[in-house]
Write a structure and sequence with these properties.
Elements (H helix, E strand, L loop, with lengths): L14 H7 L11 H12 L4 E5 L8 H4 E5 L3 H8 L11 E4 L16 H6 L5 H11 L11 H4 E4 L4 E4 L4 E3 L2 E6 L3 E4 L8 H11 L11 E2 L2 E2 L3 H7 L14
Parallel strand pairs: 3-8
Antiparallel strand pairs: 1-2, 4-5, 6-7, 9-10
Helix pairs in contact: 8-9
């Protein structure tokens, strides 16, 4: 049996495209991630890395002997010369602190140690409590939903309402975006801090550390008891003991 073999058996092509550009154009149908990766790998694989070392007869310090060098090809060099964006992150992700009362990280010096001890610096969590005390809309939100409607000012350590974005129904002065809030993970063995995070995930508009473990008008002495009252834990045997 005879078979007719032409160039269509070699690579797929489009006669219209070949005639338009007066050259042969390979036409591929990307039906898997591997196909897309093959086509785009030369543009997205990133810069090559090269490792070179310096050897000195006067020292045996490995940190001084080895240096990591980076090779930049002509495409990336031109891209950087024209100040084109190198990367992009979308949507915006805001990291939200999780800590017990007066348990935030504090940086101090010998001159301001007393002041920092008396007035610890504000965090996203303490600012969330403060804004819930005066803002009715904030009291309707979970802690992780704050970055969608508020921006975090790192210099003043305060949440501020967004001035750009979509209007929120029933709240004409509030704007929303697609920003995400990411709460830091807390290990279950970290005692009350784990249960505090559990309450923050499920309770809206708390105004303080003391009032956070409030369930049906009852203020529980520890966050674990409030979590059990809200049925956020299966039973007592699943709760890690407090240190």
């Amino acid at each position: 049996m005879d078979f007719v073999v032409d160039n269509s058996w070699i690579v797929p092509y489009s006669p219209l495209i070949s005639k338009t550009f007066k050259t042969h154009c390979d036409v591929e149908y990307c039906n898997s991630v591997n196909s897309i990766k093959y086509i785009c790998k030369y543009a997205t694989k990133g810069s090559d890395m090269a490792v070179f070392g310096f050897q000195s007869f006067n020292t045996n310090d490995e940190m001084a002997r080895y240096r990591v060098g980076r090779y930049m090809n002509c495409n990336e060099a031109v891209w950087r010369i024209f100040a084109f964006p190198i990367h992009k992150c979308h949507p915006t992700v805001v990291h939200l602190a999780v800590h017990l009362e007066n348990g935030q990280l504090v940086n101090f010096t010998a001159s301001n140690v007393v002041q920092r001890a008396e007035i610890p610096p504000a965090t996203t969590l303490t600012s969330f409590f403060v804004i819930c005390q005066s803002d009715p809309f904030a009291r309707t939100l979970l802690y992780s939903e704050m970055p969608r409607y508020y921006t975090w000012n790192a210099s003043s350590k305060k949440f501020q309402r967004r001035k750009q974005g979509d209007t929120v129904p029933d709240y004409p002065d509030v704007r929303s975006t697609d920003a995400l809030g990411h709460m830091y993970t807390v290990h279950p063995k970290n005692g009350e801090c784990f249960y505090l995070r559990l309450l923050l995930v499920n309770m809206r508009g708390p105004t303080s550390f003391e009032l956070l473990p409030t369930v049906n008008g009852t203020i529980f002495p520890i966050y674990r008891a409030a979590s059990e009252e809200l049925n956020l834990l299966e039973n007592g045997t699943h709760c890690p003991s407090n240190p």
